[in-house]
Write a structure and sequence with these properties.
single chain; alpha+beta; two-stranded antiparallel sheet; 9 helices
């Protein structure tokens, strides 16, 4: 019922310390109101398809860019994750599930996303779009109702472009609301999903899954306080456990994958919008400037994995060179020593070439389209991405690895 800690939130309005404003006339006005929020407490009741229900509590403070999410069900009550100044801390369980030990893992998500700033700057420069605001990492919340899997997903995180604190509002900007008599809410229908949004504050109040007689309530807002005092201690995240390498690595890899996919999707959708507007021609090799943007994007996106491979290879070189040196010292008197040494080094070099080619092919093979929906340019975009990723890996992995080989194994005399 709770999704991965990577993007999210939702809510509605029930209590105010100040005078309640008049209902907004459109979603654009709600977005402006949301951007002015200083803090809030929100509680949602989530209804599972098996009849169970749980409460999810949210705390948020704008100045500190901080939040906490707490989940409460019949079986357990625990904090799910925290965010403070761009750093995310998550509560996870070990392989024994709910009966196992709890660990706290985390990542400086804002710092990781800032690595893609040059990509976004280049997009703004080479493929400007009037509706896209400047790159600025910030917390963004969204809620996902999934009709095909009959569940509700929540996520939360730091994203790159400031469109709205509550991420679902921009999604509704271009939708016509369902005709109904209550001026206090907007109702939007998307496929087999129905959302009710407060026309006063922009928080999601209720969400339904299914159509007509099969429709059921999936979530509802039960409490909301806006611009309230929240104690710093309520947002204090625990220290990261750092005692389970698999969990720590898994969380870090998940965050990095999410940010890479988000940046790739941003680039693809920007190009598609410009093409739809008649402002972009996709020539052979892609539009002018895109190749350089994708090089930077994949240089950042592949950096962590490349460093791991290079570290492993460096350890292998050191052992190989040491072993080879011992062998050379033992065979100094052999007349064909040099020929034998060149043959052994050549064999090692050929094995390394084969290993590197396998690594690069595997990484390129993992690259899939970045869009969740149908985007006409996706295949052409992906084809260019794969070419660029090979270029990046040739330079950052293969060339560096071979240089390291030549300086160790290859230098044995």
């Amino acid at each position: 019922m709770v999704g991965s800690p990577a993007l999210v939130l939702l809510s509605t309005a029930l209590s105010f310390a100040q005078v309640t404003p008049e209902p907004a006339e459109d979603v654009g006005e709600l977005i402006e109101r949301v951007e002015e929020l200083q803090s809030f407490r929100a509680t949602y009741r989530i209804h599972a398809s098996d009849g169970r229900s749980g409460l999810m509590h949210w705390l948020y403070v704008a100045d500190a860019r901080a939040m906490r999410v707490h989940m409460e069900t019949e079986d357990q009550s625990r904090n799910v994750f925290w965010i403070a100044d761009g750093v995310m801390t998550a509560s996870v369980m070990d392989d024994d599930g709910d009966d196992g030990d709890e660990y706290f893992v985390g990542a400086d998500v804002a710092a990781l996303f800032a690595e893609y700033a040059d990509v976004h700057d280049a997009l703004d420069r080479d493929f400007p779009l009037a509706t896209a605001e400047a790159f600025a990492p910030h917390i963004e919340f969204s809620l996902v109702l999934q009709a095909d899997t009959d569940k509700v997903d929540f996520t939360a995180g730091i994203v790159g472009r400031r469109t709205c604190l509550l991420e679902w509002l921009p999604e509704f900007r271009d939708l016509e609301p369902v005709d109904q008599d209550d001026a206090q809410v907007f109702v939007f229908a998307m496929d087999s999903l129905t959302y009710e949004v407060s026309a006063v504050n922009g928080f999601l109040t209720r969400g339904w899954i299914g159509d007509e007689e099969d429709q059921r309530l999936a979530l509802e807002l039960v409490e909301l306080e806006l611009d309230v005092e929240i104690d710093d201690g309520d947002l204090q995240a625990p220290e990261w456990t750092e005692s389970n390498e698999d969990l720590d690595k898994g969380f870090g890899d998940s965050v990095r994958h999410t940010l890479l996919l988000s940046t790739r999707s941003t680039a693809l959708h920007r190009l598609q919008i410009l093409r739809n507007l008649g402002e972009l021609k996709w020539s052979e090799g892609g539009p002018n400037g895109l190749h350089a943007i994708l090089r930077e994007l994949h240089a950042v996106g592949s950096r962590h994995g490349t460093e791991i491979y290079l570290t492993q290879l460096a350890e292998h070189y050191a052992m190989n060179a040491e072993t080879l040196q011992v062998w050379v010292d033992e065979h100094r008197e052999d007349e064909d020593l040099q020929a034998q040494l060149e043959r052994l080094i050549g064999q090692s070099r050929a094995q390394l070439d084969e290993r590197l080619e396998g690594i690069m092919n595997a990484q390129i093979g993992l690259l899939r389209g970045p869009a969740d929906d149908e985007v006409a340019l996706e295949e052409a975009f992906l084809e260019l991405e794969r070419e660029v990723l090979r270029e990046v890996l040739e330079e950052t992995l293969r060339d560096v690895a071979l240089k390291g080989f030549d300086e160790t194994v290859g230098s044995v005399e």
